[in-house]
Amino acid sequence: MNIFHTSLIFLCSIALLLNCTPTQLSFTPPFTVTGLATKTTFFVQDAVGRQFVLKYHPRGPKRAIHDTLGAYVGKSIGLHINEVEIFSPHHPFNQLFNDINPLEPSQFRVTTLHTRVPGTSVKSIKKINNEICIKRGLCKEKHLESLTKYMQLCDMVAFDIFIENTDRHNRNLFIDVITGEFYAIDMDHGFKSALALVNIARDYDFDTLAVRVYEFVKMLQKQKLSSQEIKVLKRIHHTLQRLVDLYPPAILFDEWMAIAQKGDVVYSPREQKKIKKYLEYNAQEVCRLISLLDTFF
Ligand SMILES: Nc1ncnc2c1ncn2[C@@H]1O[C@H](COP(=O)(O)OP(=O)(O)O)[C@@H](O)[C@H]1O
Ligand SMILES: [Mg+2]
């Protein structure tokens, strides 16, 4: 790494640190509810016709934070992804939707507002659905095969590995058939091990995505890979390196806590400590994967 590269990373890190402001979307109330995606997810449109998705989080507010943080990270590297703003239970924004709130009074009513991505889910288009399988990043032959056909998805896979998102099934992957662009939605399974981590007595849950991908890549034989497969590995390597450079654990932790604060979600000191450890552990595993990928070029 040369001095220019090092200085650039340093400046980017400082910029991120100073700019630890959770996403704020532009919208103009009142909203109209235009449809129901699930029992707790609504399609809404603002007064000037902008399209959004409003999500309640019956499985708990921490998932809302993971969703928001994942979208923030993805957007910052130019991925096609929905943007997400989080609202605390008592934020006046939520009063706009009092009549559709599907949660029980006992549930924590944090909400997230998502920009609506264009296109339709890959799951709903039979031919493309049969060709794409990227759930859990890159840990099977069929993942590699999907990526050689759709190189654009390499960045999304690298992103999912970095944020440890285990849920990129084809309903959480959209395609705009007019432009051929893919879009990511639904990062509430991101930072997966951190959800379990706070509930268990042990310090770590070691089965992170980066570890699984490492195990798969280790089995690949360089001389048997096609040039297109090598290109896939190169692109994943490149994007993982960008993510690691942009988001050292301390910076990601600050972003995480800033989002939690906006949602009025409190992490206990023990939980915070575990999240920090998790982020350090994950960064270390991603770096180990990057070093392994290096051996293929
Ligand atoms: N940003 C978005 N743009 C378009 N549709 C979306 C968006 N977010 C969610 N949806 C629709 O709502 C459904 C449920 O949302 P999702 O975020 O996937 O929640 P869940 O965690 O319940 O799977 C999705 O399968 C999709 O059809
Ligand atoms: Mg989903």
Question: What do these coordinates show?
Answer:
This protein is 46% helix and 12% strand. A hairpin with a 2-residue loop joins β1 and β2. α2 packs across α10 and α9 runs antiparallel to α11. About 2% of the residues have low confidence. The protein is of the alpha+beta class and 297 residues long. It is globular. The chain has one domain. The longest helix has 26 residues. The protein contains eleven helices and eight strands. The strands form two sheets. Strands 1-2-3-5-4 form a five-stranded antiparallel sheet, covered by helices on one side. The protein has a three-stranded antiparallel sheet with strand order 6-7-8, with no helix packed on it. The protein binds adenosine-5'-diphosphate (ADP) and magnesium ion. The site of adenosine-5'-diphosphate (ADP) has 15 residues, from β1 and β3.
